[in-house]
Amino acid sequence: MQRLPRLSALTPEDSGWGFFLCTYKELRAGRSGSEFLFLTLQDSTAQTVAKLLTDAERYKKEFEAGEFVRVEGRGSLYNGQIQLVLSNIRRVNPDQDRQQGFREDECVLSAPRPIDEMWEELKAHVAGVKRDHIRILLSRVLTDHESQLRTWPAAQTIHHAYRGGFLEHITKMAEVGEFVANAYQADWDLVLAGIVLHDIGKLQELAYDAGAGSYTRDGNLVGHIALGIIMVREATSGISGFPDDLRAQIEHVVASHHGLREYGSPVEPKTIEAFIVASVDDLDAKLNQVKRAIAEDPSGEEFTAWNKRLGRVLYKGPR
Amino acid sequence: MQRLPRLSALTPEDSGWGFFLCTYKELRAGRSGSEFLFLTLQDSTAQTVAKLLTDAERYKKEFEAGEFVRVEGRGSLYNGQIQLVLSNIRRVNPDQDRQQGFREDECVLSAPRPIDEMWEELKAHVAGVKRDHIRILLSRVLTDHESQLRTWPAAQTIHHAYRGGFLEHITKMAEVGEFVANAYQADWDLVLAGIVLHDIGKLQELAYDAGAGSYTRDGNLVGHIALGIIMVREATSGISGFPDDLRAQIEHVVASHHGLREYGSPVEPKTIEAFIVASVDDLDAKLNQVKRAIAEDPSGEEFTAWNKRLGRVLYKGPR
Amino acid sequence: MQRLPRLSALTPEDSGWGFFLCTYKELRAGRSGSEFLFLTLQDSTAQTVAKLLTDAERYKKEFEAGEFVRVEGRGSLYNGQIQLVLSNIRRVNPDQDRQQGFREDECVLSAPRPIDEMWEELKAHVAGVKRDHIRILLSRVLTDHESQLRTWPAAQTIHHAYRGGFLEHITKMAEVGEFVANAYQADWDLVLAGIVLHDIGKLQELAYDAGAGSYTRDGNLVGHIALGIIMVREATSGISGFPDDLRAQIEHVVASHHGLREYGSPVEPKTIEAFIVASVDDLDAKLNQVKRAIAEDPSGEEFTAWNKRLGRVLYKGPR
Amino acid sequence: MQRLPRLSALTPEDSGWGFFLCTYKELRAGRSGSEFLFLTLQDSTAQTVAKLLTDAERYKKEFEAGEFVRVEGRGSLYNGQIQLVLSNIRRVNPDQDRQQGFREDECVLSAPRPIDEMWEELKAHVAGVKRDHIRILLSRVLTDHESQLRTWPAAQTIHHAYRGGFLEHITKMAEVGEFVANAYQADWDLVLAGIVLHDIGKLQELAYDAGAGSYTRDGNLVGHIALGIIMVREATSGISGFPDDLRAQIEHVVASHHGLREYGSPVEPKTIEAFIVASVDDLDAKLNQVKRAIAEDPSGEEFTAWNKRLGRVLYKGPR
Amino acid sequence: MQRLPRLSALTPEDSGWGFFLCTYKELRAGRSGSEFLFLTLQDSTAQTVAKLLTDAERYKKEFEAGEFVRVEGRGSLYNGQIQLVLSNIRRVNPDQDRQQGFREDECVLSAPRPIDEMWEELKAHVAGVKRDHIRILLSRVLTDHESQLRTWPAAQTIHHAYRGGFLEHITKMAEVGEFVANAYQADWDLVLAGIVLHDIGKLQELAYDAGAGSYTRDGNLVGHIALGIIMVREATSGISGFPDDLRAQIEHVVASHHGLREYGSPVEPKTIEAFIVASVDDLDAKLNQVKRAIAEDPSGEEFTAWNKRLGRVLYKGPR
Amino acid sequence: MQRLPRLSALTPEDSGWGFFLCTYKELRAGRSGSEFLFLTLQDSTAQTVAKLLTDAERYKKEFEAGEFVRVEGRGSLYNGQIQLVLSNIRRVNPDQDRQQGFREDECVLSAPRPIDEMWEELKAHVAGVKRDHIRILLSRVLTDHESQLRTWPAAQTIHHAYRGGFLEHITKMAEVGEFVANAYQADWDLVLAGIVLHDIGKLQELAYDAGAGSYTRDGNLVGHIALGIIMVREATSGISGFPDDLRAQIEHVVASHHGLREYGSPVEPKTIEAFIVASVDDLDAKLNQVKRAIAEDPSGEEFTAWNKRLGRVLYKGPR
């Protein structure tokens, strides 16, 4: 039996074994009365549904959601989506399976760019900030939240929903935002602060563990926008002489970055920098979704299948 | 010349002199080329437009917006609204005019209930809170912001937009909210906390001075909802052992009290207490508008004139 | 074999026998070609899906939707929802089964408060009406529709959708509405009339039978708001000297009680009493949904699962 | 001095005298302190604003709104709209002015078709109804409300807002609706009933007097849709053996004729006949507005000025 | 074994054999691990889901989507919808099966009226156009696209989604539109041009083959409204001396025929003819949906099941 | 008498003479019965309202809208907006006034960057296009429409509404779009084509003359989006071998560049390049409005007055 390909390359023709992270596990009762296991598995490249249809009773004790697993199975199409049909599953035994090539990193859905590279890029951006107060603010945020900022996803499901997604999102925004800020004679220090901090509340909104994000109590009750504003307020309060108008402008970018009240921003952009951050954020989130949807569409057609979240099909290019 | 009646009782038949607060002053060029003064005057009962059509050049130096004034003039209907046409205006000379009956209090648009009475009522509510942490929190808020809480309006223009309006709004909400909370076995401590704190950010959102409210920098850039959450966070942080779930629930009521995201709430109600506060707030604000609109409508008809903000006429009762 | 617990307490660990009302029955073809019975069962505490997977052909003749049944089976989780998997089902034989503890009342989903108690409360409210015409109107409505008013649900599915739900809804609204009306110096007679009559058209909109509500022809074609206005018009016409402005104001409360045209009200509130009834109705309906959703959520988490109708998760309290 | 042309033909070059109906009169204070009269005048062809700028004090006693007047003045453009600037106005003295050519009919804004002709047409439609119950119903409605049906406008301001407008609207709808009903094998009896009755509630919603419509108490509080349904219910109740499904379908057409809930229909079309009536009503109302707007636009351009109600300019044809 | 009835008449009691067009074919993995074929079959009267549950592996090679097939099976209800459960399926062998009564026409979902009859009617309309330029334009369009115009559906799924649906839609619109245009003194030549051309872009938007429509690249990327305008522009460019204002008015009808921008029209109706075409199009499309929904509803109830696209139930008539 | 400053620098303290373009002229009847001239004047830096209140009858013959004029007058505040009150006005006599410093260029509201410089930049972008077909397409468009592309505004009123505004808009979009396209590995050739062509239909939608834009017949009836698609289609048809998928993608960017159907795009973005162009277009249009609003706000406050089009105040910076 050969090793399964990466999930992003899985086809109905593939069968074999592989290591994955199991992020969801449910014992379902089938219509015929028998039970089966409904799972979500991921590796660094993609995520997929998996089903174990026989001997569910036996295998269900072999692992839990949140654990790395070793499976045997084959690819299968269901309603036009590729999934895995399993014949065997157990939790990984790290010591032993490492010899077979098991590596944690390769089993967690991840941003395509190396995290260290993105992190250095972000630090360089911060180091280049001209105004002392803003540079100190951003440096502290990077220091205080380094481990989360390096590994968090940018959202639970919608965009950049994988390890390092948060970092990928803000480094790409910073790359684009710097150019845009200069093009419009905006205050790049403020734009960068807005980019780094606009979603900072997500570090408290989401709990990210074992490849899966979930909402915290504060995430559900307060939301990442208000949480982020509080974090900015607390951080700036700790910096002696932080100018009040800068503090207010940074909080404004965080508060208004969804652009419209119906999208969850309690105030709408009123500064040039807030308009830029909202626009760059929206474009980066949308293009991440679009590119993922195009990459994951399995058909040989010119267009993807209907994308429910975007409410449209997407063009993949001429056949 | 006799004294003008209170503005709430002004008719086109009245003429005479009176003391008022001038909250707006503009020199306008009339179409005939001549200039006139366009003013807003108020006393404790109502607010009205006033115009001085002759000798504007001379009178405009006699006072500024924000000052108490002594005027002479008469009532006049314009597009169905009562206003004052002035023949004379000057700033009040307190020492001298006090003998003529000038009293600051009577010249500032105010809530109908005495402020001391409402304040005692609110303090009694807070004293009755069962859980120590919440009672301490609310007590401190009352202590720290007493002067603002006693005099602030509840909004710049929409509802309770007068001296003591903030206090009138929350005491009425507390009266109703206590009953509703008990009726639904909700947590009255939390509902009261939500009522006292839901608009607390307005103390930073608005600057209220000389009978007129205006938006502050933080008001425009951050907004009273996020400002209020920050104030709650800072206040609870200062209380040792404040339970985190209570803190989150109180912040949630503040965050969600507009009910819907398109009305400016970044999160929507998810607790019974949040639903109650949002409902009681909405009803009290609407009924304040409705009652004012009915009271201020000068016609003898069964219905008021079209109310633009509410988008309807209102029923005043059978003729 | 032991008796199954009340449905509100059912867990996947339970198995045994019980009496229920069957409100829905469908023979479905499973994917494997075999057929199974898909049912909805209820007792006074809750409602659940039930499936009979084997020998469906035989059992399907043993009962019909709308009948009380005796079943044997066990609890089972399906997509996170508890349901019953049956091994046996037959219609109740009242004479014989009564000895085993069968009672009709306990098999129909019902309001938690005793109906007689709520009915007396409502009659007391009506007896306290000051104006003769309104008291006579409400008394007649209670007399003419007593049996429906005591048993009808308040809606087909959304809120208070069980035996006595209509009565529970209006008595709770009356309890709250009386306080609110007094707090705002509103006309309590009119508010009470609005509360009793706002949904009176539902008695014609819905057919309620054997624990299930369905839409009548008039319900679909005319709707409960217009039906209710007609009922008010007919009732007031039968009362000599009923003042026309009172009649119009009561019809207005019925017509406007959904608050906005997009929610189905052909006119929007234009009287203080109409604003109050619309607000109290909305809050009571929402809190009923919220409390049910919290009570029925089976998980041990702080928040319920996603509630599709409310479009959010709900907070159940700290773990 | 010559006679002014009909208002539909008035230009800034015209001056002279004429007879009109005054439908609105207000004494306004100009910015220069002087007062002037702001009026609305109409004849059978059009309606216009008129102003009397000098000696307002004297002339204001010479007539009241609702009276026929004799004026002297000239056409004038104001913001691109033609209006009358008056130098003289007094109420008509019928005996004397009739010799000068005064005729009431020619001073009231009216439908272009003769009322008798439309009335005969409508009666013929009703006489052709096949089903006895519906024919009796419609005949009675025509008999009972003849005088209103012949003179009422179809709306206060939006479309067919002139004498005979109601009749013009329903006869045109009947002409078109008959063809459409046949084209789609719909029930023409029901469509005709819907056309005659869909706005019947307006006879109670509006008070029409002296060329001007205003809302009644029931119009504001209940609205013409519910009022119309009540009228249908009362009328069908008086006809022995009126089939219940026909009654419900007719009420449904009335209830749903605005097409969508946000346009004020408490239920939306669910029968073929209801779809047809809603469509034919909407088209006739829109085309009446469009044709009026095109006819009344004074410019020599290809397009009308911006039409606020329709939210667009309209094409008048190539120059 | 007898022949199955037409699909529009199929009941759960029927079993036998028949010829159909297969428009969709998918091999699905059932929960029990076995695979089955999920198909869509149609004849000239209706379309239905079909499933082959046993020996899917063998039968799947016997035919492809887009081919005519011979099946054996029986009617079955699933979630209240009739479908076919098959025991046998193979592609049609035209030579041999024609003797058994196979005819292509009878296996493709089709408009109820004969295509030749509708085509002659449309040609007669065009022949009657008064203005030469418009008549030449329409004649050329009919000549150039005859084969598509005769066979195309009017939409992929929503209305008239069958062979000849396009032609049925525009001939019915022409029948109604001619009357309406005359009733409102509109320009019938322009209205007819708008009717024939409003959806002409669908000939490029959709690919229609073997009884199924799908979106083309241009359909997805440009859309039928812009495609149609381009076709009009190209066709009028080829006609010497085509008046520019006529060209613009025809393009306007095409551009605005969805009525509102949110329905996809880049401009909204600004001519009488555009209002008429948009109205007649909307009514014909809606009534086609309504009539289909009523005809296809299998229950014996007064109302259809919930119609998701229309967002309501529909009245079928008294029982 | 000294020369007036540039309009962007005008204050109520200024008086003197100057040369301007008059873009609007209307004789208005004041309330006092006298007439005055209401004008719009512009120079290269700003546009303002001007009024001539005395001797309007005489001066109105001295010039027409669309002509350059020489005026005498003074700055004046009206409702917080600066305007000119004139005492004298006549049309420019070019020969004579040129000696006084009259220059056409300086009297037409214009983009701040020199047009030649922007034009060279745009040509360089086009010259750098890699794919021959797209480069040829864009080169031809630049050649064929050079004079319009150099002088047209980007919109009638909303953004870049001045001479050269179209060119300023697309060169800025190209500057930003190139960076964004590279950042997301998008097809820069296509993005550039989209930027150059997205508003190309405005050259037919608007007529721009004498400093003022107005809608053409095609602009009103067809709209710039469909007009632009037609222009692309015609241009690509003239280029031998233009690949069909490129043509469709370019048309798609034009069709979808408003982003949403309710903003007038008949299709919504389905390619990465379309998302980018829509985003860059929206941001550039908004920032142009924001910067203008900030620059033109005359007050000394931190925030501008309420901006009706953007629905908010804007932050100008700390005082």
List the helices and strands and how they pair.
The structure is a homohexamer of 319-residue chains.
Chain A: E1 15-29, E2 35-42, E3 47-52, H1 56-59, E4 68-78, E5 81-91, H2 94-98, H3 115-127, H4 132-144, H5 146-151, H6 165-183, H7 188-197, H8 202-205, E6 206-209, E7 212-215, H9 217-221, H10 224-237, H11 244-256, H12 272-296
Parallel strand pairs in A: 3-5
Antiparallel strand pairs in A: 1-2, 1-4, 2-3, 4-5, 6-7
Structure, explained:
Six copies of one chain form a homohexamer. The first copy, chain A, is α+β, with helices and mostly antiparallel strands and 319 residues long. Chain A starts with 14 loop residues before the first strand and ends in a 23-residue tail after the last helix. The first copy, chain A, has a five-stranded mixed barrel with strand order 1-2-3-5-4. A two-stranded antiparallel sheet of chain A has the order 6-7. In chain A, helix 3 (115-127) packs parallel to helix 6. Chain A contains twelve helices and seven strands. The longest helix of chain A has 25 residues, at 272-296. Chains in contact: A-B, A-C, A-E, A-F, B-C, B-D, B-F, C-D, C-E, D-E, D-F, E-F. The A-F interface holds A 172, 175-176, 179-180, 183-184, 245, 249, 252, 268, 270-272, 275-276, 279, 282-283, 286-287, 290-291, 303, 311-315, 317-318 and F 172, 175-176, 179-180, 183-184, 245, 249, 252, 268, 270-272, 275-276, 279, 282-283, 286-287, 290-291, 303, 311-315, 317-318.
